[in-house]
Specification:
The protein is built from 10 helices and 2 strands; from the N terminus they run E-E-H-H-H-H-H-H-H-H-H-H. It has a two-stranded antiparallel sheet with strand order 1-2. The protein is mainly alpha-helical.
């Protein structure tokens, strides 16, 4: 296990996690990785909390302590998927200062690649996913939208973009909703959808940069 005694820097250069936070994050990731591996060979309906525990090398009670139920486990898995999306967008934005379209195209492209390889997403696309999983990213997606949007708002506010809060909230929620829509309905094979999305949102982000250049210098 990696040494976390000095804390871990969060994605996109956030504050360092405490030892307890870093340890908890490592445990949750290990459990969710175990669930992902199980989903590559079996249907979600046949995955038990005990199976996840064995895959991660911990007790079943540890899994229950972390997620409370199978539904809680599924929700955490879906939330981590949205975190991956935010991570990709954040890294791309920070790597391409002043180039919103390039950053968004890169971030969405990376996310689409991650989603395409995810067994839970693959089950959605093949029609094998159970209704409880599908609801997590459709009718019951508000927790995912809220959490991911908050991180995107922070990115838009504190990175080189420096957007005003109202604009940041509007842009963030629209971007997250767009990303989730492509989870349940994948990008068209004959289109570079990441580039299409960037063409739409890039100018909006540019317009919001610097607080809309402080509302066009007042």
């Amino acid at each position: 296990m990696p040494d976390v005694s000095a804390g871990v820097v969060s994605a996109a250069g956030g504050p360092a996690l405490s030892y307890a936070q870093a340890t908890k994050k490592l445990l949750r990731n290990s459990l969710l990785d175990g669930m992902r591996d199980l989903l590559r060979t079996r249907d979600w309906s046949s995955v038990t909390m005990a199976d996840v525990a064995r895959a991660a090398g911990v007790s079943r009670q540890t899994v229950y302590n972390e997620f409370a139920s199978r539904q809680g486990l599924a929700e955490a898995y879906a939330l981590r998927l949205t975190d991956h999306f935010v991570d990709q967008v954040s890294e791309a934005v920070l790597a391409h200062e002043g180039e919103a379209k390039i950053a968004l195209a890169e971030g969405f492209s990376r996310f689409f690649a991650i989603a395409a390889d995810d067994p839970l997403i693959q089950s959605l696309l093949t029609g094998q996913a159970k209704p409880d999983l599908l609801r997590l990213i459709t009718t019951d997606a508000d927790p995912l939208i809220t959490t991911a949007s908050a991180r995107i708002v922070a990115l838009l506010r504190t990175s080189w973009i420096q957007a005003e809060e109202t604009a940041a909230v509007r842009i963030a929620r629209a971007i997250v909703r767009m990303a989730l829509s492509y989870v349940s309905m994948p990008p068209e094979a004959d289109r570079d959808v990441a580039d299409d999305v960037a063409e739409i949102f890039g100018p909006v982000v540019d317009a919001a940069a610097g607080g809309g250049r402080r509302e066009s210098t007042g």
